[in-house]
């Protein structure tokens, strides 16, 4: 869980507190949000058992098709594991689950399942591993050198002495 502030600072809308009368202000509040949902801008969606099974049937067929192309040895294990999980965990406790989709609400995309641990406070998410797309992330630490004059990364700082070499430090 994270806490998100709803406060609006007058500076954000061009206000200057030193030059203006003191206003009434606004009710600044904070909200607790689930960090995964908030950070990835997931949107909660609703299903009943019948509509979820209809969605899931189509989604699992799309995953099977991808596995046929990329990893045919994985198909049987995927089918068995998915059926077992859906029957024993999802359908058995259907009312406990919350369903989320991406902000674009793509009907062909995976629906993320969320439930809470036994303590009732700790959320956990379930995604089908075979429905994820792996992204490789490489960081070049050498490109993150800081320019002491401007306190900006070298790639963002303007260096009049070496304008031709500016692209060497970019990610």
- How many extended strands? 8
For the largest beta-sheet, the strand count, sense and barrel status come to: 4 strands, antiparallel
Distance between the termini: 32 Å
CATH superfamily of one domain: Metal Binding Protein, Guanine Nucleotide Exchange Factor, Chain A
Organism: Macrostomum lignano
Protein name: Translationally-controlled tumor protein homolog
Pfam families: TCTP
InterPro entries: Mss4-like_sf, Mss4/transl-control_tumour, TCTP, Translation_control_tumour_CS, Translational_control_tumour_p
In brief, what are we looking at here?
It holds the Pfam family TCTP. By secondary structure, the protein is an alpha+beta fold.
Describe it for me?
- Residues 1-137 form the TCTP domain.
- Helices cover 26% and strands 16% of the residues.
- The chain has 171 residues and is α+β, with helices and mostly antiparallel strands.
- A four-stranded antiparallel sheet has the order 3-4-5-6, with no helix packed on it. It has a two-stranded antiparallel sheet with strand order 1-2.
- The radius of gyration is 24 Å and the shape is globular.
- The protein starts with a strand and ends in an 18-residue tail after the last strand.
């Amino acid at each position: 869980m994270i806490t998100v502030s709803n406060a609006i600072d007058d500076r954000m809308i061009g206000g200057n507190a030193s030059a203006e009368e003191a206003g009434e202000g606004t009710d600044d509040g904070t909200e607790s949000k689930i960090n995964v949902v908030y950070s990835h801008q997931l949107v909660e969606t609703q299903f009943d058992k019948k509509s979820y099974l209809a969605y899931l049937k189509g989604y699992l067929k799309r995953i099977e098709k991808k596995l046929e192309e990329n990893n045919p040895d994985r198909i049987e294990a995927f089918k068995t594991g998915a059926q077992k999980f859906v029957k024993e965990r999802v359908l058995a406790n259907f009312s406990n689950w919350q369903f989320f989709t991406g902000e674009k609400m793509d009907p062909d995309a995976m629906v993320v399942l969320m439930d809470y641990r036994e303590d009732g406070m700790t959320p956990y998410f379930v995604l089908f591993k075979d429905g994820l797309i792996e992204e490789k992330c490489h960081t070049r630490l050498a490109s993150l050198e800081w320019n002491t004059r401007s306190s900006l990364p070298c790639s963002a700082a303007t260096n009049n002495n070496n304008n031709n070499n500016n692209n060497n430090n970019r990610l």
